[in-house]
User: What shape does this take?
Amino acid sequence: MKIRRAENGDENNIANVIIKTWKVAYQGILPDDFLESLDTKRHEKLFKEHIKEQKETIIVLENNKGEIIAMISGGEDRSKEFDCEIVAIYVLPEYQKQGYGKLLFKYIVGEYKKNNYKSMIIWTFAKNKDQKFYEKLGGTIQKTGKHNLGGTEIPLVGYVWDDI
Assistant: This one.
């Protein structure tokens, strides 16, 4: 396994990780028609721009074959309430529950500490079945919100670390 910063050319593989993970992880949470409509093109464009302009920290995890199997991204907290946030953390379903998410989490927190960040938030869907992951890493629910997805309000919770 190899952890590294995302590079130009990684955007398709990152998009595939996100789409495949969303289609499994968010069944029953997000509308089926939305999940079925997901394709990589929008995410590819977004990550190509983010990688080029370094708008956020994007880290990938490769398996021993050099295939991207997981990703994590984030940067300064968009709300400015916390120092930083993790915007996305996704591990392909067949690689979950093997410690890869935790490796990526620790890696990006190490990057955040280099920037003297202390407080951090991760937003997730309130019905996300993987919330224990954030709790095991020391996060506590301190915020709630909603995400509007095609006219449907999806409840969110914000896991906070007061001192990473």
